[in-house]
Fold this sequence. Notes:
By secondary structure, the protein is of the alpha+beta class. It has two helices and nine strands, in the order E-E-E-E-E-E-E-E-H-H-E. Strands 2, 3, 5, 6 and 7 form a five-stranded antiparallel sheet that branches. Strands 4-1-8-9 form a four-stranded mixed sheet, with no helix packed on it. Helix 1 runs antiparallel to helix 2. The radius of gyration is 19 Å and the shape is elongated.
Amino acid sequence: xxxxxxxxxxxxxxxxxxxxxxxxxxxxxxxxxxxxxxxxxxxxxxxxxxxxxxxxxxxxxxxxxxxxxxxxxxxxxxxxxxxxxxxxxxxxxxxxxxxxxxxxxxxxxxxxxxxxxxxxxxxxxxxxxxxxxxxx
Length: 136
């Protein structure tokens, strides 16, 4: 019987949240941070999607034949592993300089706005690109 292995690496952006998994439009379960799950399914054509709140992934279509297995990795948006730590660091640095030394850094302000705009894109127009499904 075909087997689907779904792996989720650890990441800062969605560490405390589970992703919902949908196979052919039907919810099959949740996957937590740094977790790997396995589903046995009959041979056929499948479409897998991952969702978190109103955001999700693009559907990943694949075909499984008898005794075949597939490995899929689910993760956040591009560079999400680095997004949260860098955004927090830059925000803390910006506010420290502003509050302690009354220095308003234009460069740090612009970088912070770009990071905020990048996040807003994935939470609005790019909400179906917030999560990624990739064959391993």
